[in-house]
Write a structure and sequence with these properties.
FMN-binding negative transcriptional regulator
Length: 218
């Protein structure tokens, strides 16, 4: 049974993520949009009960009804060894987040942290040489824009040889969870006051969080 469904919603399959119903997002398109807007993720694996984690840019593809994630690790990275023995990974994506002070509420209450996050699981498959070069080309060309863009096709042979220093992986997603903890449990008055304080902050992260909250509740 596929856990990721393209026709509307994320399936209710088992997912090792704390997902209270109030904060759970089940819309498939929202998941894909979130992943692509927040591509710098953490890949987590384990070997002999020891956890390993690496922060990497991740490419997101939808192929038929499957979500496929691809990334690469530096060849000397010890996490590669864990993936030889245990191919299961958890990939964590983080969106807007920030501190919410209880002083912004009408009545006394505890402070909290608002955030957006996605967790996805699946098994890693090593990319062959051609697949790795294609993946690096897509990654490079996606971010290289403008008149002076250094696209993949313009790179010298010496630079391209550095691809031998990385190992590429793809993951067909098995389970996915998307969580927006954005004060949905607060009154409209509290909610508006939280957004106002975040908007007035000098911190760009707070401003981004305010924008995400405004999308959720106008």
């Amino acid at each position: 049974m596929k856990v990721i469904l393209r026709n509307g919603k994320i399936s209710k399959g088992e997912m090792p993520m704390f997902l209270p119903k109030l904060f759970k997002v089940e819309d498939f398109n929202a998941l894909i949009d979130f992943l692509r807007k927040n591509p710098f993720a953490t890949v987590i694996s384990s070997k002999d009960d020891v956890p390993y984690a690496t922060q990497v840019p991740v490419m997101v593809d939808v192929i038929d009804e499957d979500v496929v994630l691809s990334f690469h690790l530096a060849r000397p990275n010890p996490q590669n060894k864990t993936l030889e023995h245990n191919k299961n990974v958890l990939i964590q994506f983080t969106g807007a987040h920030g501190y919410v002070s209880s002083s912004w509420y009408v009545q006394e209450e505890v402070s909290t942290w608002n955030y957006q996050a996605a967790q996805l699981t699946g098994e890693c498959v090593v990319l062959n040489e051609d697949e790795l070069m294609e993946d690096l080309k897509r990654l490079t060309d996606h971010y290289e824009t403008g008149d002076n863009a250094r696209t993949f096709d313009t790179l010298s042979e010496d630079v391209l040889k550095q691809a031998k220093g990385v190992i590429g992986y793809k993951v067909k997603v098995r389970e996915a969870g998307l969580k927006y903890k954005l004060s949905q449990n607060r009154s409209d008055k509290d909610y508006k006051n939280i957004v106002l304080n975040l908007r007035e902050s000098d911190n760009q992260g707070d401003n981004r969080l305010a924008a995400e909250m405004e999308k959720l509740r106008n």
